[in-house]
From TrEMBL:
Keywords: Coiled coil, Methyltransferase, S-adenosyl-L-methionine, Transferase
Record's keyword annotation contains Methyltransferase: yes
Domain of life per record: Bacteria
PROSITE patterns from the UniProt entry: N6_MTASE (PS00092)
The protein's name in its UniProt record: Site-specific DNA-methyltransferase (adenine-specific)
Metal-binding as UniProt keyword: no
GO annotation (BP), single: methylation
Organism: Laspinema olomoucense D3b
Length: 280
């Protein structure tokens, strides 16, 4: 499962993603279990943890990656199954990119699966702050970003990611479905849910039409605990706040330092404490 030598780049996220974990991998590395056979990531997002684990585990592992966001999973499936067509579509966008074209593409409603995937990747690479945000109807509504020459199509990276995803199972489903599959100490589950808001004005749970409220956080804790009782290795990222520390108090809580990269006020961007909860 881990043959990346055919390409000059190693697999890594091909999307910009709010709360992406690329910059935190070095702090996460000591917390990952050294051995497992099956990996589950029910809040896929940018996939930074999966791509890192793929590089590190030369013996390979079975991976099931899922999310409730159909557009997101469609992108991964297109990278997995038809990366050449996807690259062709992205090159088409690259050659036509300007402000008028951006808003024309943003207003599009339908299309073939590869075209839909290319549209979202294009918007992701050219929108403000690389922010994926939807309105209540599931429509992408982020304005264009201020990029002079954005890289819309990184063909080598997409090919490397396609290779990494070849034997991966990709599913559109709620996080609690992991209970149907992860049942033993050979299983490792990583949860990266929408973070619990640190204030009443936080928008951490509003990046898509799939809101994640306090009841969902409790439900996730219950799934975490049920998996832990089975002996499954479980790891979760979330805000460092009293609520999260309280509901996970029976487990190991680790602090990490993250850069807050999405904020409308530049003076409010900087380092912030987050927690990583582990069952082991």
């Amino acid at each position: 499962m881990n043959e990346t030598t055919a390409f000059s780049v190693l697999p890594r996220p091909f999307l910009k993603w709010a709360g992406g974990k690329t910059q935190l991998i070095s702090q996460y590395q000591p917390l990952f279990p050294p051995k497992f056979k099956n990996y589950y990531e029910p809040f896929l997002g940018g996939g930074a943890v999966f791509f890192y684990l793929f590089q590190e585990h030369s013996s390979g592992f079975k991976a099931v990656l899922s999310d409730v966001n159909e557009e997101l999973i469609n992108m991964y499936r297109c990278v997995q199954k038809d990366v050449k067509s996807l690259i062709k579509e992205l090159e088409f966008h690259q050659n036509r990119h300007n402000s008028e074209y951006y808003y024309q593409v943003r207003a599009q409603k339908s299309g073939e699966l590869v075209k839909k995937a290319a549209r979202i990747i294009y918007l992701n690479k050219t929108c403000f702050n690389g922010l994926y945000r939807e309105n209540s109807k599931g429509e992408f509504n982020v304005p264009i970003g201020r990029y002079k020459n954005p890289t819309i199509c990184n063909a080598e990276l997409l090919q490397a990611d396609s290779q990494a995803l070849q034997s991966v199972q990709l599913e559109v489903r709620d996080f609690d479905k992991v209970l149907d599959e992860a049942k033993t100490e050979q299983d490792f589950v990583y949860f990266d849910p929408p973070y619990y808001p640190l204030s009443n004005t936080s928008k951490f749970t509003s990046y898509s039409r799939y809101n994640f409220n306090e009841e969902d956080q409790i439900r996730l804790r219950d799934v975490f605990a049920q998996l832990a009782r089975r002996g499954v290795k479980v790891m979760l990222s979330n805000s460092d706040c009293p609520f999260i520390r309280e509901i996970y108090q029976e487990f190991r809580i680790h602090e990490v330092s993250a850069a807050r990269s999405i904020n409308s006020k530049g003076t409010h961007r900087g380092k912030i404490s987050e927690v990583v909860v582990t069952s082991y």
